[in-house]
Amino acid sequence: MHPRPHFLMTDPSAFDVSYRINPWMDPGAWTAEHGVAAAAGSAALRRALVGLGAAVETIEAVRGLPDLVFPANAAVVLDGRVLLARFRYPERQGEEAMFRAVFTRLKARGLVEEIVDLPEGMLQEGAGDAIWDIGRGHFWVGFGPRSDRASVGVIRRTFDKPVVGLQLASDRFYHLDTCFCPLSGGQVLYYPAGFTAEALATIHAQVAPADRIEASEEEAAALCVNAVNLDRHVVMARPPESLRGKLAAHGYRLTEVDLAPFIRSGGAAYCMTLRLDRASAPQASILAAE
Ligand code: ARG
Questions:
Q1: Residue located nearest, by CA, to atom 1 of ligand 1
Q2: How far, in Å, CA of 247 to CA of 265, rounded?
Q3: Where are the domains of the chain?
Q4: Fewer beta carbons below 10 Å: N end or C end of the chain?
Q5: Is there a contact between 276 and 102 (Cβ–Cβ < 8 Å)?
Q6: Ligand 1 pocket, 145 CB below 6 A?
Q7: What CATH number should be reported for the domain whose range is 6-275?
Q8: Would the CB of 177 count as within 6 Å of ligand 1?
């Protein structure tokens, strides 16, 4: 018996772009209409996940914490253990107490088992920079723009699982999840320009050429690499036609969601969610009805 995939999302009613902590964000260009579109986009993403058999828990919106809509940055979660994030920028540090309260409630309900803190002073922005690879059985850990290099070892020790560290090379692709997405079949969708030469060599050493799906500049700029993968299904922001073909060629079925307002903040499908039931042991197909 495999439980349904369980995700965390946040009510988007307090979402806006009112500060700038990455190059995607332009507070001057944000309008109330974008807020309306954000509500629709978040609802569409939720419907897409539920339509694929997932359950979604909702965090309430908090005025003044617009980026709370990106719970991938709340924590790293594996096998019921939650490593709470610490944010680089003051604009997001207020989210830490909120997310701690959220996980404390989830723990009381038995949805997670254990809450762990990072070492004092260490910065690590959650599952946005620590992505579990189901097939390979290790974390891919991004560092540089947001998370500290030393977080790689902390994640290895906290979860007692192998980790592969990848240094990020661009301000635009500041979290690993903006330029890297391991897929259930062993392929990796990634944007090479997001990585240092050393990180790219690491990826190439771990992923066979036939399993490398390179995102183009256009595909990466549409934040399509920031995708949610459930078995053979991939949920992402509206992709260019080119990417539809690449994923179909590898047997993936695409669900496209209009997430334009969130892209104005530098986020899309993957980081608008956090998988709560991520398990290290390989699971049989979680999506029964195909
Ligand atoms: N505006 C947010 C920030 O810059 C977007 C975060 C998106 N999260 C992610 N994991 N890619 O922090």
A1: 265
A2: 25
A3: 6-275
A4: N
A5: no
A6: no
A7: 3.75.10.10
A8: yes
